[in-house]
């Protein structure tokens, strides 16, 4: 599904150039659950942003479903993104002014789904995430775990083929964290590819494969026994 | 379009109450001010616009002054209209109008003094598009016929049908008029408000006006309006008329002006009423635009400030698949919602404030369906403006890269910051100009108030009686003298004098002439001089001082022999030392007169206009009796008793009469009423502008403090004091105000210099006006900024650092 080769990304300030990704190469197959680990500043988040088509690499190749997408402009990336990729963030990133229902509905609006159909799909996913009873609440009225469930619901409502999770349990206690991880496992088992950045060895154990990074490069890669 | 856009917009406004409040208040005040001023301006511009008014011109007289012609008189000759009609094919009709400023109507036991009437040609009704409610114009072509306004007819006749009934009128002498028609009351928006129209033919039969009836090129006491054929070129006709010399006098000429221009742009001697001021309307329009712009700039500033806080939301939306156009659309919908809220608020402001404003300007402006339609283009403009104002933050918002937006790492580039700083500078520039304007206007108003006018008008009462019976002149003269003597015997009266007019009375009772032979024998046929009759003790009553000679003596002879002139006239005759002109003789009106005294120049019309060459002649006059009261009647109660005593005295001598009185000082000050109002309006609008600009500054400061929160935290951790932080934060804004001030000085100086040119006597643009306006602006900036920066400076640094 994803194949990156010699991927490069630099950050330039006026005087210094920092290398965030240094000729990084790996691939992810459809249906895989991959965890990316490494110390702060190793380039994990940069990588995730590029994989999520939020950012453009400075060098190398990025094939998404066999198509070279490196060098796509924002409009093209946005188009590809909204149909194929869902995001889960450490800080949930829900819109405070929208209710649970409206937050989850957001991606469907942007992909142009009709209101009646939207209602059906949102309700289905809320049901699945077990937060249907909270549909008319605003994010501030929810616990962290509930908020992250809403965020996951929003990420999956569009039925994306790929979910990118950036430390999804980072702001949660272990009970809530485990619940979220179980959700991700369920999604993965239903066929969704998942790439997750995490600091937690515990969470990483849920994945099929762990890629460890250091200074923008891949250090090790170990496949876990299922 | 999705309903969600509106939902989120309103939720956002509700959540950010302070931000919404500031924005809506600022924007709505700007819009309300703009609406009110627009109503006022369109009211002022709507004068004399009736069906066909674009083809109606007024004829007026130009007089030569030096080598150029200047507008000298709003009134023309009774031959003017017919002559133009005959000589120029494009002139299809004309109407002459002899104005009567006040006439007393008597019907049964009703005695009604009615201002604003005229004798007019029957063509009046065609030209001014005034249809009759009742009656027939063909009856109006006979002498002694009158057409009344609806309300006057009602006052005189009540429920009875007034048609073909008679009514007596007094104006110098009495006459009987037959009512042949009723016209609807005239709107306020005409320069020539009339309550009754008497047929022009009545001039010949009415004793008091007979002298005006003979067609001639000598007495220009008539307003003339001409109607021209469609597609007449105004300039071409004006050229023809100004170069024609009907009256065979090279020193004057006829000229024309559009009737629609009279109210705002004509300020000639002998106008029917004090007209509006084009420059005042222009200034107010500028102020309205400035205030509207200020509130828009505010809105832009505040929204961009706020957009920073919303970067995360934009990031989420982008990640969720929003396209740029969708984000811009949402932002525009939000600004539209805010604009609509502000518009509704503004309309509430207008409804609440309009009566107060009306009271203040003495108009009756309404926000109705008919004139709202005239406001539609403005509304469209405002709407567009608000969209534009929403567009800028929208573009900034949607431009955020999603990755950075999500992390809240939006550091607005310095160029955007400069735009914002630029906007603040523009706001303060405009505000400082308004402050300078306010200071200059009020300084000028005080100057006019405090300036000595060369006469003492306090405690002087002008009595003007109307005797409602025809008595011979000789009897009237004797009775008036009895009244005068009786007045002198009253304990509270210091002095009594009769005069045709007095300072502050306007042009109406002042005669103007050309053609005088100076003492050295030169004949001056160019300069207009003005004059009026007064009795010798008039000078004492109003305390006009003599620089040479003295007042003429009381004399019984009917022949005009002695005059008093003012300094200006003496200079015009070539006498720099007034002593030299005493007992010299001048010839005018076929009489030879001796100059017995030269008075110090006094202001007959207030300080807006130049002192005119003036003579006061010893003719008999019974127009006004001036009474100088002594100070003991100074209390309100004392004043009322005195007035009652004077009234009953008058009634005992003239049983069948009305007595009107006015206080000279109040009447004189009334001339400045419009200027005082303008000054106050200027102050109010300036205060508003300052308030709006301060709101904007408040917004920018809160943004700056937000941006520099981490910096402030670090500085505090490393030992900076609250005061040092304040200095750091306030410095930038003071710099902006100083820049605005530097640009505002020359602009403000130029604008106010132009404004002052309207006045013949003006205050100077002192340096302290500019210094004070700078101090005010900087103080306002400091106070506004400090509200936010103090908060930032005293905040716990640990908190600031944590959020990073």
From TrEMBL, chain A:
Residues 2-226 form the ABC transporter domain. Gene3D superfamilies: P-loop containing nucleotide triphosphate hydrolases. GO terms for molecular function: ATP binding. Keywords: ATP-binding, Nucleotide-binding, Translocase, Transport. It holds the Pfam family ABC_tran. Belongs to the ABC transporter superfamily. PANTHER family: CELL DIVISION ATP-BINDING PROTEIN FTSE, LIPOPROTEIN-RELEASING SYSTEM ATP-BINDING PROTEIN LOLD. This is ABC transporter ATP-binding protein. It comes from Winogradskyella bathintestinalis.
TrEMBL record, chain B:
The lineage of its organism: Bacteria, Pseudomonadati, Bacteroidota, Flavobacteriia, Flavobacteriales. The chain crosses the membrane at residues 21-43, 283-302, 336-357, 377-401, 422-441, 684-706, 733-752, 767-787. It comes from Winogradskyella bathintestinalis. Pfam families: FtsX (PF02687), MacB_PCD (PF12704). It is a multi-pass membrane protein. It comes from the Bacteria. Residues 20-243, 489-630 form the MacB-like periplasmic core domain. This is ABC transporter permease. Keywords: Cell membrane, Membrane, Transmembrane, Transmembrane helix. It is found in: Cell membrane. InterPro entries: ABC3_permease_C, MacB_PCD, Macrolide_Exporter_MacB.
